[in-house]
């Protein structure tokens, strides 16, 4: 779960949550592609296409370079060099969607908010409590959900929840 201060632009809030997780080291890190460290660029590109299929070809050489560069400098590079395992964090979410979509966060359904909180404007504390117990983990892996928490009637925080990775 990630929590950021409310802002009306959910995509900007998601970006802030991704950067916060990255800066705080709140993610899973693996050497997902050790082959990139032992193969030449050409060997790695051939191996990746053989292993993953022809759709991997455009990403093969940039991926080899990113892995060889060492520690990532931003959330996108971290996510890019761990395509199989993911980061097990909000970093794996790329966008905001109105409906559930892979690698995106979508709003929790209003009916669920009614059921869990008795309102569609739940308090920040109530959302934090339910999120901490897994009550907002609604979707399959690689799909995220967001819920806005309120202080009285004023939006106060945005919570991003879900699971990614293995």
In short:
By secondary structure, this protein is of the alpha/beta class. Helices cover 40% and strands 17% of the residues.
Topology:
Blueprint: E1 2-5, H1 10-24, H2 35-38, H3 41-52, H4 57-68, H5 75-81, E2 95-96, E3 104-107, H6 110-117, H7 124-132, E4 143-151, E5 154-163
Parallel strand pairs: 2-3, 3-4
Antiparallel strand pairs: 1-5, 4-5
What can you tell me about this protein's structure?
This protein has a five-stranded mixed beta sheet with strand order 1-5-4-3-2. The longest helix has 15 residues, at 10-24. With 166 residues, the chain is of the alpha/beta class. Helices cover 40% and strands 17% of the residues. The protein starts with a strand and ends with a strand. Helix 3 (41-52) packs across helix 4 (57-68). It is built from seven helices and five strands; from the N terminus they run βαααααββααββ.
Return residue spans where pLDDT drops below 50 for at least 5 consecutive residues. none
Q: What percentage of residues falls in helices of 4 or more residues?
A: 40-55%
Mean pLDDT: 90
Shape: elongated
Largest sheet: 5 strands, mixed
Secondary structure category: alpha/beta
Structural features:
single chain, alpha/beta, 5-stranded mixed sheet, 5 strands, 40% helix, elongated
